[in-house]
Amino acid sequence: MNALPELTRRWYAQGRWSQYLLLLACLAGMGGLLFTARALVALAPVAAVVAALLNPRLRADLPHWYRSRGAWRLLLLYLLLPLSWWYTQDWAEWRHELYRQLPLIGVPLAFTLAVPLTARQRLAVGAGFVLGNAGLGLATLARYLLDPQRAHELINVGQNVGSVTGNFHIHFGLMLALASFFGFSLAREARLARSLRYGLLLAAGLAALSLHVLAYRTGLLAFYLGLAATALLLLRRRPGWALGLLLGAGLLAGAAYFALEPMRQRVRSTLYDLEQFELRRDINDFSLSKRLAAWQTAGVLVQRQPWLGVAPADVRQAMLDQYAWRDFGLRPENRVMIHNQYLHYLVGAGVLGLGIWLAVLSGPFLQPGPRRNPYVRHFLLIFGAAALADSLLQLQIGFNLFVFLYGFLVVAAERRGAAAVTQ
User: Can you tell me the distance from the alpha carbon of 392 to that of 383, in angstroms, rounded to the nearest whole number?
Assistant: First the structure.
């Protein structure tokens, strides 16, 4: 009768409950992102915080949180919202965002205070992300092949086929780009079974193939800018590798353009889209033109309040008010929001907010440990590139993708680096 309580106490003392619950939270969060399961996405950060509280050495490990630069950067990003109470106008949105963005505090807290995952557990989470996205990419490709004409019609108006699980094409394209980079790096890990190594390489290739065939514009932008940025980082240490990577990226882009009809359609539709805005024609049915109109609208708001912005919770209402003065001929339902995370922070929190967001993305490159970690580099470069084309943190799936990967990769890498120094 006493066996179960004794086992429970022993696992607690050994830190297993904390570690296993953190692993479960990672797997649940990843599953929620892949399959758009909102309950899993919402509960994963809560489970991760509970994992931190179950650490038997919690008090002794508290300095890990105090000293984590990644955790402090996300905390500052969160504080932009509560510190705007004195000039915000949309109190309902302010209260909603105050709770919605709590994972900016909770997730880094979990990865600094819970018992760390083992290398094998981290590999399982990473491999699950790569293989899961590759599988969804293949399934979405199959749906595309069943009705390519419908997909081409969507491309012509700047839209895309979403994933088979309902993921929005912008976020799904970003996840495919991340999976292709992560899969290649994971396949190079030491002591990896040959079958898994080849499986990860195949999955990385399939994710990249799906991204190109489905012609996800934001995902392709992130993919190629990620390759270019990686080449620039390699230029000083390994110039031959850097030039080879740039050449390979150019050849891949050219081959995809000439071999894939969706890619050619995407390029043609993008140029036609831009032409409509340039010639001041009706842009109600053109995705990129509506974004350009939104950027110009946002630019007016920045000129009016450059330092602290209109308040993070007031961005939507401020945009709608400005559209009322100049609507670019857009119907109310087509007056889109900013679609650029950098500009979004500049509008909402001014130069201060943009500075903190840039510190979140660039800060890890100033630390030797995270800078040498290929997964950290890939994540920050690709997410930073995708943020040029969309306000990724404003929708819940993009927000949770960012916070989960920042905690799993950046914050956890900082902690491992600090532990290695003290040993």
Answer: 9
> What is the distance between the terminal CA atoms of the chain, rounded to a whole angstrom?
41
Amino acid at 41: V
Q: What is the pLDDT of residues 123-178, one digit of tens each?
A: 999 999 999 999 999 999 998 888 888 877 777 766 788 889 988 889 999 999 99
Q: How many helices (H) and strands (E) does the chain have?
A: 21, 0
List pLDDT tens digits, range 211-257. 999 999 999 999 999 999 999 988 888 899 999 999 999 999 999 99
Structure tokens at 247: 């050449």
- What residues contact 300, with CB distance under 8 A and at least 6 apart? 322
d(CA 272, CA 278): 10
Q: Which of 277-312 are b and which e, b meaning 16 or more Cβ less than 10 Å from the residue's Cβ?
A: beeeeebeebbbbbbbbbeebbeebbeebeebbbbb
Asked if residue 140 lies in contact with residue 38, where contact means CB atoms within 8 angstroms, the answer is no
